[in-house]
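I hope you will forgive my troubling you with a question about protein structure. I am sending you one protein, given as its amino acid sequence and as whole-number tokens for its backbone shapes. Thank you for your consideration; the sequence and its tokens are set out here:
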Amino acid sequence: MPLLESPFAQLDLIRQPEQHNDPLQAFDAADEYLLNHLAEQQLPAASRVLVLNDSFGALAASLQGHMQVTSSGDSFLAAQGLEKNLIRNGKGFDAVPFIPASQTPAGPFDCVLIRVPKTLALLEEQLIRLQGHLAPGAQVVAGAMIKHLPRAAGELLERYIGPMQASLAVKKARLLIATVQDRPIAVSPYPTRYTLDAPAIELLNHANVFCRENLDIGTRAFLPHLPKNLGNARVADLGCGNGVLAIASALQNPDAQYTLVDESYMAVQSAAANWQAALDERDVVVRAADGLAGQAADSLEVVLCNPPFHQQQVVGDFLAWRMFQQAREALVVGGALYIVGNRHLGYHTKLARLFRGVEHVATTPKFVILKARK
């Protein structure tokens, strides 16, 4: 794979999760553009730089040792990528502090470099949280590949930061350069909330939660078919989002034990709040993680999953396939993985390669609910 070369460093970078012969690289032209732009600013070495939504550490690892760098984002895999890429390039795994997006990085910062995220609500929340954390004369620079750069990103910068100027395109990437100007103190519109009838619960959703405004149609199809009579089974909600599958299941299975995992810190934050609101002090484990990678083998009887079909801007079934493999490792013999998926994705065939039995629990015109037994 090619090296990331910038005025700050030459780095050998890998993506997360690691994939054999991965055709994708861990950086792109927008990372190079941001680093070249920052080099032209000739900031003092003592400058404090905040990096937001760094995919796998390309920006933060490049700047480490040149400035005081803090990284923040909503992806556990991105945080893991930063640690691994720091080590891979001869630096300490903790050389750059990482702040989950569920927390607010403490400034003041002299410069903020932003990779524009897929979810503009996350960008809006991050810009609002910069209030009071920017040094006088600070610059806020957002970058993205042009095909992933909506007009609304520039509008958000102007609304919350100050006048914005778009750069020329370089290698199909563009920067949005905002000059900090006094703005009225903004109140965040996040988290949002919506209610369900069955089960009768209210769900809180922080800015980067999937289907933040209402229940996604796949989960809606899944809810009536969650397994019942689980006794004291150990159950995981894999890719839990706001926790709705686990909460609905727990309300039907009062003695079951639940673990909720997601790679989004804001999803985990939302799920923990929703569990407490619906189930009060009932014991639960909620954690940000690389799926079930940290789960002990043969430690679960049931896994519930509404698998993703994209990672950031990349569409594919690699993450779903990996989650199925993780579920198989974590399940006891005889344990079961329950999933919902679009019918055209062919998950039945994929699951049959891993599990000894796969059955259709239910089908709708768009979705299929499957049970795969180890």
About this structure: The chain is about 25% helix and 30% strand. Residues 265-279 form the longest helix (15 residues).
